[in-house]
Amino acid sequence: MKIQNVTDAAFKKYGRVVKNVDVSGLVEALASTPLPDDVVYEPSVAELEALPVYAELQKKCYGELPIQIGYCNGKNYKLNAVEYHRSSEINVAGADAVLLVGSQQDITEDFTYDTSLIEAFFLPKGTAVELYATTLHYAPCSVHETGFQVAIVLPKDTNLSLEENHAGGEDALITAKNKWLIGHAEGGLPEGSHIGLKGENIDIKASL
Predict the structure, then answer these.
(1) Does an H or E element contain 11, and which?
(2) Angstrom distances, CA of residue 106 to CA of 20, 82, 138
(3) Burial class of residue 177, CB neighbours in 10 A (0-12, 13-18, 19+)
């Protein structure tokens, strides 16, 4: 699979490189977060939200909306699923990573998605990107055997547990607050997840 760069023109339909926020302190803080052999996601981490960059991200990237800063760390080379939100997501690389992304507009009326449409982009350490609300994404992928560390910035309460049951149509994809998920049969998702990814469960390891 071809791995492009987030600075390439091809990335512009999925997001943008964030250049007006100093994320160096957040990158440094990510070095102290856990890096397991699998993948761990924490939506809200007090130590990261106490950094000065919190106010800057809230003001410049979310127009003063309440936000949360967490992390997604670990070792992974596969797609497994795609998710989308009703909001942009900021990713800040504490270590080199690859983002597998697609377009919500390519989801079919029966909520399936062809994985051959996925594109891969290299996210270098120290770089922040905004993924637009219509950009399909999931856990980052590793570039090095040591794994990836990526800060995840979203509107407050995103990815927290639901308070109601959801079923039927697009509602069946809602697995957490502000999270719509489509899984692959080989992705190891929890029982009850909507399995709608068609095609290969993309593995980038051979492309690195």
Answers:
(1) none
(2) 31, 12, 16
(3) middle
Tell which phi-psi region holds residue 170, choosing left (phi > 0), alpha (psi between -120 and 50) or beta: alpha
Domain residue ranges of the chain, discontinuous segments joined by +: 3-201
pTM assigned to the model? 0.98
User: What's the pLDDT score for residue 93?
Assistant: 98
pLDDT (average), residues 26-36: 98
Give which of 106, 100, 133 is closest to 119, Cα–Cα.
Answer: 100
Rounded to the nearest 10°, the torsion over CA 34, 38, 41, 42 is: -30
pLDDT tens, residue by residue, 78-119:
999 999 999 999 999 999 999 999 999 999 999 999 999 999
The token pair that represents 155 in the structure block: 């509107």
Residue 6: partners with Cβ closer than 8 Å, 6 or more residues away: 15, 17, 99, 121, 122, 123, 124, 127, 129
Q: The domain at 3-201 falls in which architecture?
A: Sandwich (2.60)
Ranges of H-type helices in the chain: 24-30, 46-49, 53-60
pLDDT digits (tens, 9 = 90+) for 118-148: 999 999 999 999 999 999 999 999 999 999 9
